[in-house]
# Entry
Amino acid sequence: MNIERINDNTIKLFLTNRDIEARGYDSNTVWLNPAKSDQLFMEVLQEADEREYLEAEGLMWAYVRT
# Structure
C-alpha cells in the first residue's frame, strides 16, 4: 500500500489487488461484500494512522476509484 499526503487534511491511498490479497482478502469478495470492504477500509485507515499520515478521529470522507 502506498500513501500520499495531498495536504494537511487529505491523504491518497493506493492499493493493488496484490495488496488486498496480502492482507488476507480476496479482491472479488471485497467488492461484493460490504462487511469485508468496511473491515479492509478500517485496517487501511489504522495503518495510515500508525504511519502518522493521519489522526483518525472525527468524521471522514472517502472517495473510492477502481
Summary: Strands lie at 2-7, 10-14.
